Amino acid sequence: MTVTSSPLDIAERYLDECVAPQANLIDHDSQALQRAFMGLGDHALLTLRADNQVLFRRFQETISRYSGALAFLQTQHQSAAAMMARSPNKTLKEEYLPDLARGKRRVGVGFSHLRRPGTPPMQAHAVPGGYQLQGFIPWITGWTLFDSFILGAMLPDGTSVFGMMPFETSQDEQGGELRLSPPLEMAALTSTQTVTAEVKQWFLADDQVLFLKPPNWMHHNSQTNVLHHGFFALGCARAGLDILNQAAERKNLPFLKSSWTRLDEELQACRQAFFESEGEGVTSYGDRLKLRAWAIDLAGRCSYGAVAASGGAANSLNHPAQRVYREALVYAVSGQTEDVMEATLNRLTSAEFCP
Ligand SMILES: Cc1cc2nc3c(=O)[nH]c(=O)nc-3n(C[C@H](O)[C@H](O)[C@H](O)COP(=O)(O)OP(=O)(O)OC[C@H]3O[C@@H](n4cnc5c(N)ncnc54)[C@H](O)[C@@H]3O)c2cc1C
């Protein structure tokens, strides 16, 4: 009798054997990151989000325990795959979707700017046969790692249009321009090759459009998915505790183990609350917001615990505690909304004054 492993077991085995030993290299070397990403593709793990949301969240938590850069890169591609799967544009779907699970095609996203208040950074105007796009894209992860990306731009009435773009500096047939910046110099996830882009009079043909979303869609979507980015923070907190535990095993200092035990109990409680709140309508938005802030706070404290337990070595760029501490920084801001920012700061400022 053959026993089939679940995608999560397959992922865990792959991450443990192939990613954990080179997590620090993957953090700053984009070729190592590319190989690790393609390894997920070899196990057909790159469209889990499109196939099964609940399973994907567990995967997201697991992968960020092993490598923040890989977790972050693959999530952009998985977002693109989920959008593709929901698109009514059958031709685009048939062209891309079958190749996404194994990474034969690799797609990023650039639409977090739709959350920004005031004048939309990326604007769209309907023209015959499609849309003309103009503006600035503040974040697109995956330059040279992905071959295209899904761009979100806003029409004058607040409707958002999502369409396919090449992931390289290019000109369209009418002289429109897409100009990418060099990779941003970032403190964490340097290997993910995150860039910005200027878009001038770019023609997005109707056949490259995935879908339109009504005004305020991004706002509602961010509220519905407020826990989504929190699963990264849970995995990052676990990564910090793994380092603390290793230090406890190496050093004869009982407080290391007792600190681990205390934080481990808290992380388990936070995880349980996350998984119990997953279904829509189970927990109010306000309570889910507090849970997200709790996970962000835990990632910060567990990674700080890893630093403290590692001593001066934690200041070395090659120390895992250093990497995980920087990754916690990213999870404090990724997918951030005004509400998430406020909940994060409220939690930080709610402690009583005491020595
Ligand atoms: C390393 C890295 C890689 C990333 N890669 C991608 C990617 O590939 N694709 C992608 O789409 N995104 C990406 N992001 C963006 C990310 O998900 C978040 O959206 C981002 O970190 C939030 O930062 P921001 O500066 O863009 O925030 P903003 O969106 O500018 O602000 C956060 C919140 O604060 C509020 N706010 C901001 N300014 C004001 C103001 N002046 N007045 C009132 N309220 C305000 C906004 O309402 C918003 O909800 C990446 C981020 C990082 C750090």
Automatic annotation (TrEMBL):
InterPro entries: Acyl-CoA_Oxase/DH_mid-dom_sf (IPR046373), AcylCo_DH-like_C (IPR036250), AcylCoA_DH/oxidase_NM_dom_sf (IPR009100). It comes from the Bacteria. This is Acyl-CoA dehydrogenase. It comes from Phormidium yuhuli AB48.
